[in-house]
Amino acid sequence: MAKKNQTLGEFIIENQASFKYTSGELSRLINSIRLAAKVVNHEVNKAGLVDIIGAAGETNIQGEDQQKLDVYANDKFIQTLTNRNIVCGIASEEEDDFIIVNSQDENHQNKYVVLIDPLDGSSNIDVNVSVGTIFSVYRRITPVGTPVKLEDFLQKGSEQVAAGYVVYGTSTMLVYTTGDGVNGFTLNPAIGTFYLSHPNMQFPEDGKIYSVNEGNYIHFPIGVKKYIKYCQEEEGDRPYTSRYIGSLVSDFHRNMIKGGIYMYPKSSKNSNGKLRLLYECNPMAFLAEQAKGKASDGFNRIMDVQPTELHQRIPFFCGSKNMVEKAEEFMKEYSE
Ligand code: AHM
Ligand code: MG
């Protein structure tokens, strides 16, 4: 039973028994994410102070400029998960290929793989706007004790056993689910402890916020354009309000608390949108559904999509249930 003010450490221990495959392994995994999150948080908070920001001079697999803190966060999460021998494989948005952990060790019995976007929205760092870490956990499908394979990572979102994010915002929060609702923990930076501050988080069924990059408007499908116009119309509880941080974790977090929809549709420039199915959309979709919201590609449930590649992109509509369903209605009516 979630109690406000409980520490994350206490919460993990108390809830371990209620997890159906309990062996302590998932608890250790969440614990190491908690640890890495604190280390990354410390670094993100100093970004304006020290000469750590700025492009590292490398581009990631998607051809985008990689910033130093992305590299730092990527290294920290990977190090924490591998050094402590907690998972059997890791895939990261910042890495071209997945990482096999400890395949040499015959006694290696770990069964979880982690997929991670170590620092999402990183173009916001230089301007002191919130960024986040997103993670997703699956049980491997290949036999324990052998090196993980691509198929262990290319599982449908509906197979996730845990997912969450860390938002490095005005406060730093860790929000996660193991399939039994969503709980949010706020870091007390003075003592480095996360406390349960937001038990059982839920999207309001309806909302009044829409979050989309309207700069891309002319490139959007007609269904999206019509839905945006619907949001802006003067009728009933409309017009809605537009809020777009450009940091998925922060936009999602606000919409979950206040009620809203986040959209990153396809466009004539990006035929599958921008967001990655495995590192961004599936974990957020799992959280959304666990928080009584909804996540779709405009037509179908995100978590039912069979992934075919690690860095696959997909259109994303996520948030309050009634809003996502309304957007889907427009997509269907005006499908091209
Ligand atoms: P990133 O993984 O390169 O940081 O990109 C993901 C981010 C999301 O957090 C955010 O919602 C979106 O990109 C914003 O994109 P845009 O600037 O095209 O609106
Ligand atoms: Mg990202």
Task: Describe the secondary-structure layout.
Layout: H1 8-16, H2 25-45, E1 55-59, E2 65-67, H3 68-83, E3 89-92, E4 99-100, E5 112-120, E6 131-139, H4 150-153, E7 162-168, E8 172-177, E9 182-188, E10 193-198, E11 209-211, H5 222-232, E12 241-242, H6 248-258, E13 260-264, H7 277-290, E14 294-296, E15 316-319, H8 321-333
Parallel strand pairs: 3-5, 11-12, 11-13
Antiparallel strand pairs: 1-2, 3-4, 5-6, 6-7, 7-8, 8-9, 9-10, 13-15, 14-15
Helix pairs in contact: 1-2, 2-3, 5-8
The structure holds 2,5-anhydro-1,6-di-O-phosphono-D-mannitol and magnesium ion.
Overview of this structure, please?
29% of the residues lie in helices and 22% in strands. It has eight helices and 15 strands. The chain has helices at residues 8-16, 25-45, 68-83, 150-153, 222-232, 248-258, 277-290, 321-333; strands at residues 55-59, 65-67, 89-92, 99-100, 112-120, 131-139, 162-168, 172-177, 182-188, 193-198, 209-211, 241-242, 260-264, 294-296, 316-319. The protein has an eight-stranded mixed β-sheet with strand order 4-3-5-6-7-8-9-10, with helices on both faces. A five-stranded mixed β-sheet has the order 12-11-13-15-14, with helices on both faces. It has a two-stranded antiparallel ribbon with strand order 1-2. α1 (8-16) runs antiparallel to α2, α2 packs antiparallel against α3 (68-83) and α5 packs across α8. The site of magnesium ion (MG) has 4 residues, from β5. Residues 93, 117, 120, 280 line the site of magnesium ion.
